[in-house]
Each structure stands twice: as C-alpha cells, then as structure tokens.
Amino acid sequence: MQAKRMFYLSGLLLAATLTGCATGKHDTYGPELQGFKYPYPVERFKFVSQGQTVQMGYMDVAPKGTPNGRSIVLMHGKNFCAATWEGSIKPLSDAGYRVVVPDQIGFCTSSKPDHYQYSFQQLAINTHQLLQKLGIQKATVLGHSAGGMLATRYALLYPQQTEQLVMVNPIGLEDWKALGVPYRTVDQWAQSESRLTYQSVRAYQQRHYYAGRWEPALDRWVDMLVGLTNGSGHAEVVRNSAALYDMLFTQPVYYEFKNLQVPTLLLIGTEDTTALNSDLASPQVQAKIGNYKVLGKQVAQFIPRATLVEFDGLGHSPQVEDPERFNAALLQGLSAP
C-alpha cells in the first residue's frame, strides 16, 4: 500500500510540475484562482446574495460507472479548495455517484465580496440553491476541516434533503472559546493572512496536517493557498479570509451535534492537532485542544446515528495523505448509511 501511495503522490508531483505549481516557482494566481488548474472543468453559479450578484465556482462530475442514483457534495476546508478533492472525485464517480464540488463564496474560484456577512447558515443556503439549480433534490454532504462545520449546518438546516453526513477531520469538534482560547480580531486575522509565505504555510501544514511528514506532491496545495493570497487579488482575498476565520471561531456547531437526524460517518486521522488560535493559547490550554484521538470518539457519542472510522498515523487531511486508504473507507461507509 505504501508503494501505491508513493506512486500516487509522485503522479501528483508530475502534474504540479506540468502546470507550473511545483516547488520553487511559487506562482501567484488571480482573485478567483485564475491560473491554477482544476482536475475537472469549473462551472459558474451566479445568484444574488445580501444584495450583491456573486458567483460560486464548482465542478459537476457525472458518474462514470453504473449510476447509482446518488449525488454527493464535497465541501472544502478553510485552507483548501474544491481542487483538493481531486484524489476522491474519480473513485466516487467510478462508483456511480454524481459528484458536485463547489468553492464557497470567499474561497478560491468564487467571489470575494467587498462586504459579506459570513455565516454557516448563509453558506449552506448558497449550496442548497446550487443543488436546486442542478436539479438535485437529495444528496450526501461530505465536509473536510471547516467544511465539516458547514456540512453539519447543512444537515441541520436541510435534514430531509440530506441522505447522509460525512465529516473528515472536521474542525469544530470542540468550542475553543469556551475552553479558554483567546479571540483574534478580524483586523488581526487580516494582518496574519497578509504575512503568509510558502515557508510559513508549509511549516504549519507539516506540523498539524501531516504529523511532521512531508511529500513533494503536497507543495501543490501550499502553492495554491499562498499563490491566491499573494496574487493580484491580495486585498480582497485577505479581507474575506479574515472574515471567514472569525466565522469559524464565533459560530460553533459543537453544541448541536446531538440534534443531527441523519446517518453520520466520521473519518478521523488520529494524528491531527488542528485547533484555531492555538498559538495564542496558554500552554495549559494548548495541551487539551486539538487532540483528534480523543475528539473523534467523544463526538461519535454525541451524534445519534454516528459511525466512527479512525486512520491511525494520519493527520488532518487523510484524503490527501493516503487517498487509497481513505477512499476505501469512504466508499464502504457510503454503501451502508
């Protein structure tokens, strides 16, 4: 399995090199990630929200195998984009799923509004409108990292339209503020985001996302994030990113896990140590947050119809780090909701 994983990662590295995203070039991209290659064509959903005309970029991938009549929506995390799901889209399509992968407003290929009141409810409503436009009445929603918080909110708002909820190392399995983590203002977040460098982002991801490990293919996702932030849309990207971080910290879904009505699959890399604003916390608080070995088991007890699958040795992004192992567990979990 390790050999296959290395072969997959080597393929990603080659793809990154061919598209100009490999290590060393540190490309920059437009405000809607212009110049970064997605694995499937990006379509646009234009709509009016909060008095503004905005658009969501999304991929809509038809089933390649025998269609099973099911649709699945893949929701990205805060430091990720729809493209980050490239290792899972094809296996899901091959298994018969229609796969819809949006970039949320404020992220990646989607609009960066001058003014927007971000909430998980608003992003869930936007996503529901997209699915209505695509004629999808019911879907499985799968969210990674911050996308897990969004997928939870979607399932709470639209239980009749949610076939199954899947969360992959979601943040929000604890309420950081209630545990004593200090607040960071939107202005402070903007200052922090303005100083992103390839080295700082890689160091953070290596420590928290991949348990200290690094593969050259992972450079592609660092380049994606840093290239967007430092590109021609720097000001609007930073402004929206800061507002989105504030949403994550101030709008916990933790207390509502008990209200979920849909079958829920938790896919947890146990070496994950991600916790928002942990760098501001005291050593005592740092020691008790971001422990996914504990958090996954705890939250599985809160959710009425939960199934927990743990990936020992993997970190925050198991779908990127070991896609073969991850996809096998995902497809098995989807087959028996």
Architecture overview:
With about 325 residues, the chain is α/β, with parallel strands linked by helices. It has a single domain, classed as Alpha/Beta hydrolase fold, catalytic domain (Rossmann fold), CATH 3.40.50. It is about 40% helix and about 15% strand. An eight-stranded mixed beta sheet has the order 1-2-4-3-5-6-7-8, sandwiched between helices. Strand 3, helix 2 and strand 4 form a beta-alpha-beta unit. Helix 3 packs across helix 4 and helix 5 packs across helix 8.
> In the CATH scheme, what's the topology name?
Rossmann fold
User: What is the CA-CA span between the terminal residues?
Assistant: 27 Å
Q: How large, in whole angstroms, is the Cα Rg?
A: 18 Å
Q: In order across it, which strands form the biggest sheet?
A: 1-2-4-3-5-6-7-8
> Tally of extended strands?
8
Element string (H = helix, E = strand): HEEEHEHEHEHHHHEHHEHH
Summary keywords:
single chain, 337 residues, alpha/beta, Rossmann fold, 8-stranded mixed beta sheet
Briefly characterize the structure.
This protein has 337 residues and is α/β, with parallel strands linked by helices. The protein is built from 12 helices and 8 strands.
